[in-house]
Design brief:
heterodimer, A: alpha/beta, Glutaredoxin, Rossmann fold, Ubiquitin-like (UB roll), 5 domains, five-stranded mixed β-sheet, four-stranded mixed β-sheet, 24 helices, 17 strands, B: alpha/beta, Dimethylsulfoxide Reductase, domain 2, 26 helices, 33 strands, about 30% helix, about 20% strand
Chain lengths: ~625, ~800
């Protein structure tokens, strides 16, 4: 490929713009994100192609595999243009019918369309589906629209125009100013103003500086960064190029975990393409900037998402954090000035260059500007990737976009910020998405993991789960995190097993405070947050476990009494039929009873009962 | 120079000093586990928290991470900080097994101290402790992982400081494990320092395990005499037995560490076959009678054949006291000698090095680490003076560069440049380098093009702080003088340029001061053979083990009228001697030694002597046999024995020693206690013993094409005679092999793994062949291993023709 100039870029852009506009009449966009791959989108795609071929439509219809569409719960997904028709939960068998009905006869297949869980009505157009209707895609603006393996399509969507502008029309200081105006704060979780971070690094003396991209997304239930990398890898590269110009760096690394093979593959393709176009390498677009990017694959330790540990890992050392100061902006990778930005942060940068910081800051709250991507998961109907303007209430995310709680259960809490964050109960559900507002209610914005929990979730068990994660992933360097989190886990396990003692809550609080104050890095300092926030809102559950040896959510198996609650029992006999030990006494239209002599506590009845009548 | 206040006391410290170190200067020991002055700060253990109340830093901070700054006000006793530390110590003790009663660290355990000092007295945790499986790490270090508090000192020391990779940290979180990927011998010859550096009992001293608590021991500051570096150590003895060495920090010499040869080489002082009985012709007798007999034999010989017919050889390992009294005796009585080197070349090598070491060039082992570029010439640090290798590793860690010019397959625990050149090319290379450094274009010597002398000269010239390290074992005096010239040439262009020689023998520097023109054992044997010398006194010089021609030695000894041996090691010569007088090793005699940079250092006597209770009691304790005297207490300090041989009567020899020391050499001044620990007056040493300048006509070294140079060399373990007697170290030894370049093996028609026999002047040496691609062509290196009868060729550097090599079938 020939190296591009800015003029070439404009040519490609306008050509691609036309093609992309054209696509809206003739293209089928099948989601190729990891979620849809897992539910069989590759086979569906093959079947679709076969069916198209079968009908002789190969020349007139094109099937494009896009990055993650976002509505992962409904995969495999297909969006058909014209009409923006959204198909969900496709199978191989559906394909002949879909081709026949939709492509030949122009009649969308009703049964494969999205069905609103409340109104039960089928909705054909993607933009009309509530999940999409409340979103504002900025970091995700290209998701499901372009082929992530095509640099031309990215350019067609204004790609690398921001970089060209930064390279030719802006000084490093202007870039930094623009970032400051945008109000962009680090989307990795801590929310440090990106422009300020760049400013520090740009003012650090040194001929060698580095731009790093943190794609080591490790929180349970978080997949924002992976989806961005899979759907729009060039946006991240472009963001890094702009950052390189801002701080005068010549080398960049993307630290991605090996567990993200698709993201790494697409990033690799994107880097090769960008190099081919002269968008990476020496004298980018003929400018003075030379900048190269390498992918560094991490082995998947959670702590390697911590910036100092990440840098040690790239250096080939054991991934362990080191105290700050010195801050990476002064002494980072190989002791050189370094900036580390999260994938989502970098993906936003090109648009800020194109449209200006003021445009970006146009939405949001006083202190939190722009949009935020969340990975919505857990006990919520519409599991998937959502991007909303800052300031959107959590309730909107969970109910309007997420479609509420399945199985008619009640909402209990949403865990924001993963293992470093906290849970937010119903009473605070109107909290807006805002760094400070979320912190005030005891959670953190975090990188965007939002795990919704219904009334069947035991909050002690939830705290135990996160503490198990933290103590498992502690690097083992500093004492409080290594020993303290293990100690907390032991206490939580004890409580869940019904061996809790009266002073356990006090010890948990004391340990939490000690760890918070004494741990070396952010992972340790925020490690006790899930425990503290669970105690803040659900102390009664802890007390029930400890004092009454009872799990209010009936989740803690060790506390099950294997009794049937008459009011809840619908007398269906499901438990009776399932019991392998003949321990259930049941007659038609009678409440079941468990014979404790015979019961072997295998939990079969508990799992089978759909009415939570066994406790 | 920031000034700060710690606990209301003001202190002024150099910039860059951490607060924890500043406090230490005030005598305030802030608790620490991960922090160690040699390893620096990592901020892992969190136990050094203090409160910063005023100044540029505020709040509770780790004192090991914060540089002392002007206006800081620090409180180590702040309630919040104390509480912080108490919690951290409680965490550390959660999994600790509390096995102090059976732990060898008990009593000198930092964890014990800080647990008590930190105020953690009540255990609140009643859960299970995590446990680990221990590893067998070889004969030197005992592993007990359950005691670990994860301070990371061991892995940082082992991997970062010493550069070995076989021990480190594995796992994360609470599963962190320090050890090897599989049990096995530790590869680093500096592994014993793990014992000193571990703040609790994860690594303890294996040979001395369960022998006693530290407070049970007789402990005294001592020195290592297993090479010439003079590393400082603390020796411990119990029940009349030396049981342990620990590194004694000396920031001007060995820093905080010692090598394993030094740490475990002490066993010779207490082994069962150590001679403790005076003997006349193999028959034991009271020491007074034997001394009188020996004195009489000397007198008779002098009367019959003149004073020159009595010759003395002394060991370059002997104390300064012994050397001084021997020198005084020879001078007073006109005896021949003393000889303190085996061959003429070795004697001249040593004296050349000492005479070239001018005061403005001499650097200490510790100062070596601050060099930017080190050129090592004809030295194999890891094998000859192991701590030098550790010192050079620090050069490389600080961004410096090490180049080694040596024919052997030198290995070092870091990246360095190695010019494997033939011994005969060394002189030409050095001369060319000196010319280039002086700005003259040198004619390139006949060396491979990869050895770019111009580039090396440029590099050294551009270096802010170059140091020349030069060995004295395999080189010739001319090359040693050239190394000195090289350092001097650099000195002209640099403010600081260093010169660092390694010598043969712990007190070789002092031995070089015995005479301006050195005498060698070889020369003494010449005199014996021509009948000039009739009586030989060997003072702590085990000629049997160390003289490179045993056959000649034996023949010469047979020609003697009389042989007097004074020694503390067992040797066949002891029984052959007309008179044998047992002497004391340094643990009993103490004394002074001068290390290779000219630093005068003292070792205190550790114990009174006598046969270990383990031996007299047959391992029974307490001993069942009682006597007025301590069994085996006859050995005398060698200087006393020599004084008794030379003296007219049995008067107190102390004044004699005082005079001998005062007269020893103008450079050595023992009159003030401050002199000990300092470098002696190098200015007072006669310089330029050997004219450097153009190379002498290469005679013997002009190796014919079909010949190899056979070098008999040192190995870390197995060649140094005293440490080779330590049972713990024999397991660390590699079996002796002849190392050659693979191409050389093929050229000579030898086969790897098969033995080769070298026959020279009717003497034979058979040793298996091992390929070493790092060796220079035309060179064969064989260790002076105690399992090998290498004492056959009369020199440690000889030319062997191809026809003199024979490949053995098995």
């Amino acid at each position: 490929m020939a190296k591009l100039t800015t003029q070439d870029l404009e040519v490609i852009k306008s050509a691609q713009k036309a093609r992309l506009a054209f696509r809206e009449r003739t293209y089928l966009l099948i989601c190729g994100g990891t979620g849809c791959h897992a539910t069989g989108s590759i086979r569906v795609k093959d079947a679709l192609l076969a069916a198209i071929e079968d009908k002789g439509l190969g020349d007139t219809v094109q099937v494009i595999e896009t990055g993650c569409n976002g509505f992962c719960a409904m995969g495999p997904l297909l969006v058909v243009h014209p009409g923006d028709i959204f198909y969900q939960k496709l199978t191989v068998e559906d394909m002949p019918e879909l081709v026949e009905s939709h492509l030949i006869n122009g009649k969308p297949v009703e049964r494969l369309l999205y069905k609103d869980p409340v109104s039960k009505a089928r909705i054909a157009a993607q933009t009309k589906i509530p999940f999409f209707a409340h979103q504002m895609p900025r970091a995700l603006r290209n998701k499901g629209l372009i082929n992530p393996e095509s640099i031309d399509e990215y350019i067609g969507r204004d790609g690398y125009i921001g970089a060209a502008k930064a390279l030719f029309d802006m000084t490093p200081q202007q870039i930094i100013e623009e970032m400051k105006i945008s109000g962009m704060r680090g989307r990795g979780g801590a929310g440090f103003p990106t422009g300020v971070k760049w400013d520090f690094a740009s003012k650090s003396a040194g001929a060698v500086k580095y731009v790093l991209c943190n794609a080591d997304e490790g929180d349970p239930g978080a997949f924002m960064d992976r989806s961005i990398l899979e759907a729009d890898p060039h946006a991240v590269l472009e963001g890094m190029i702009i950052a390189a110009k801002a701080i005068d760096a010549h080398k960049g690394y993307i630290y991605a975990r090996t567990e993200y093979p698709l993201a790494i593959k697409r990033l690799g393709i994107a880097i090769d393409q960008a190099k081919g176009y002269g968008l990476l390498g020496d004298n980018i677009l003929g400018s003075a900037l030379s900048f190269d990017i390498e992918i560094y694959q991490g082995a998947g330790a959670f702590v390697c998402g911590e910036e100092t540990a990440l840098m040690r890992s790239i250096e080939g050392k054991r991934g362990m954090p080191r105290p700050r100061p010195p801050f990476p902006a002064h002494k980072g990778l190989w002791e050189k000035p370094t900036i580390l930005n999260n994938v989502e942060t970098l993906a936003n940068v090109p648009q800020i260059m194109v449209k200006g910081g003021a445009w970006y800051a146009g939405v949001g709250t006083q202190t939190s500007k722009g949009t935020k991507v969340f990975a919505l998961s857990g006990d919520v109907n519409n599991i998937g990737l959502v991007e909303v303007p800052m300031g959107t209430p959590l309730r909107t995310i969970i109910y309007d976009i997420g479609g509420g709680i399945p199985n008619k259960r009640k909402f209990k809490a949403v865990q924001l910020g993963g293992p470093s964050g906290g849970c937010i109960p119903e009473s605070h559900l109107d909290t807006p998405v805002d760094y400070e507002a979320i912190a005030k209610v005891g959670a953190i914005m975090g990188s965007g993991g939002a795990i919704v929990m219904d009334e069947k979730t035991c909050m002690v068990d939830m705290a135990r789960f996160f503490m198990e994660f933290i103590q498992d992933e502690s690097c083992g360097k500093c004492t409080p995190c290594r020993e303290g989190t293990r100690r907390q886990l032991q206490i939580l396990e004890k409580i869940c097993e019904g061996r809790g003692e009266p002073d356990d809550i006090d010890i948990l609080v004391e340990l939490s405070q000690t760890i918070r104050e004494t741990a070396l890095c952010g992972l340790g300092q925020t490690g006790p947050n899930p425990v503290l926030s669970a105690l803040r809102y659900f102390r009664d559950e802890f007390e029930a476990h400890i004092h009454e040896k009872r799990c209010p959510a009936k989740r803690c198996v060790a506390l099950l009494r294997f009794e049937v609650e008459p009011d809840a029992c619908t007398r269906c006999g499901m438990c009776f039929r399932a019991c392998p030990a003949d321990a259930i006494v049941w007659e038609k239209k009678e409440v079941a009873r468990i014979d404790k002599e015979k019961c072997i506590k295998c939990l079969t009845c508990y799992d089978k009962c759909r009415f939570d009548a066994i406790f | 120079m920031p000034t700060l206040k710690i606990d209301n006391r003001e202190i002024n410290v150099p910039a860059g000093t951490k607060v924890i170190e500043a406090a230490e200067r005030l005598g305030i020991m802030i608790p620490r586990f991960c922090f160690h002055p040699a390893l620096g700060s990592v901020g892992a253990c969190r136990v050094c928290a203090v409160a910063f109340t005023e100044g540029p830093v505020k709040g509770i901070q780790m004192s090991c991470m914060i540089d002392a700054q002007d206006g800081m006000v620090v409180s180590t006793t702040d309630a919040e900080a104390v509480d912080f530390r108490r919690h951290v110590i409680e965490f550390l003790m959660l999994n600790h097994p509390h096995d102090c009663p059976v732990c060898d660290e008990g009593g000198h355990c930092l964890l014990q101290d800080l647990t008590v000092a930190g105020g953690h007295g009540l255990r609140r945790y009643r859960g299970l402790k995590r446990t680990h499986i221990n590893q067998d790490l070889g004969p030197l270090v005992q592993h007990e992982m359950n005691r670990c508090i994860q301070c990371y000192r061991c892995s940082r020391y082992y991997q970062e400081f010493t550069g070995y990779r076989d021990l480190g940290v594995m796992g994360i979180g609470s599963r962190v494990y320090f050890g090897r990927s599989a049990p096995g011998m530790l590869e680093s010859p500096f592994a014993g320092n793990l014992i000193d550096i571990c703040p609790t009992g994860v690594y303890t001293d294996k040979p001395s395990r369960y022998i006693g608590r530290r407070w049970d021991y007789q402990r005294q500051p001592s020195l290592c005499i297993h090479c010439s570096l003079g590393c400082n150590l603390t020796a411990s003895a119990r029940y009349r037995q030396v049981v342990r060495h620990e590194a004694r920090p000396n920031l001007e010499v060995n820093g905080h560490f010692i090598c394993d040869r030094g740490r475990y080489g002490y066993a010779y002082a207490s082994i069962a076959d150590r001679p403790r009985q005076a003997m006349a012709a193999g028959t034991p007798g009271p020491i007074v009678d034997i001394l009188a007999g020996a004195r009489e034999a000397i007198q008779q010989t002098v009367e019959k054949h003149g004073p020159g017919s009595v010759a003395v050889v002394v060991s370059p390992r002997s104390s300064l006291e012994t050397l001084a009294v021997v020198k005084e005796a020879c001078g007073q009585h006109g005896w021949t000698g003393p000889a303190a080197a085996h061959t003429n070349r070795q004697a001249l090598n040593r004296n050349t090095a000492v005479s070239c070491l001018r005061p403005e060039l001499a650097v200490s082992l510790a100062a070596d680490t601050e060099a930017h570029d080190v050129l090592v010439i004809g030295a194999d640090p890891l094998n000859e003076a192991p701590m030098l290798a550790l010192s050079l590793r620090q050069v490389q860690r600080r961004g410096g560069h090490v180049i080694v010019i040596d024919p052997r397959g030198v290995q070092l625990p870091f990246d360095f440049d190695h010019w494997a050149v033939h011994p005969s090319a060394m002189g030409a290379i050095l001369q060319a380098l000196i010319q280039e450094i002086g700005g003259h274009r040198a004619t390139a010597p006949d060396t491979p093009a990869t050895f770019d002398i111009t580039k090396l000269a440029r590099r050294l010239n551009a270096s802010p702080r170059p140091v020349v390290v030069c060995g004295t074992d395999i080189l010739t005096p001319h090359e040693i003088a050239l190394a000195g010239d090289l350092a001097r040439a650099l000195r002209r262009t640099h403010k600081v340029a260093g010169l660092f020689y390694t010598l043969a023998g712990a007190n070789a520097f002092a031995a070089a001061l015995l005479h301006d023109q050195p005498v060698s054992t070889e020369a003494v044997l010449d005199r014996i053979e021509d009948g000039g010398v009739r009586l030989l006194v060997a003072v702590e010089q085990d000629l049997w083990r160390e003289f490179p021609d045993r056959k000649r030695l034996q023949a010469a000894l047979k020609r003697l009228d009389h042989l007097v041996v004074l020694d503390y090691v067992d040797s066949p010569l002891n029984r052959e001697a007309g008179h044998f007088i047992p002497t004391q090793p340094l643990y009993e005699s103490g004394g002074h030694w001068i290390n290779q940079e000219g630093r005068l250092q003292a070792a205190s006597p550790v114990m009174a002597g006598g046969e270990p209770i383990e031996i007299t009691g047959g391992s029974d304790h307490p001993p069942r046999v009682f006597d007025r005297r301590i069994p085996g207490d006859e050995p005398l300090a060698a200087w006393r024995a020599v004084a008794a041989l030379a003296g007219e009567d049995e008067a107190d020899p102390a004044p004699q020693l005082k005079t001998a020391l005062a007269d020893f050499h103008p450079a050595v001044n023992l009159s003030t206690p401050e002199a000990t620990g300092q470098r002696i007056d190098l200015e007072a040493i006669a310089h330029d013993l050997v004219e450097s300048g153009p190379a002498p006509e290469p005679a013997e070294d002009d190796a014919p094409a079909d010949a190899v140079v056979l070098l008999l060399v040192d190995w870390t373990f197995g060649t140094e005679p005293l440490s080779a007697m330590a049972p713990a170290l024999t397991r660390m030894e590699a079996a002796p092999v002849a190392r050659l370049h693979p191409d050389e093996i093929a050229r000579l028609g030898l086969a790897e793994g098969r033995p080769v026999t070298v026959s020279l002047n009717g003497n034979r040496l058979t040793v298996p062949v091992q390929a070493d691609p790092r060796m220079a062509a035309g060179v064969m290196a064989v260790p002076r291993h105690h399992l090998l009868e290498w004492q056959v060729f009369g020199e440690t550097r000889v030319i062997v023709k191809r026809s003199q090599l024979k490949a053995e079938s098995e």
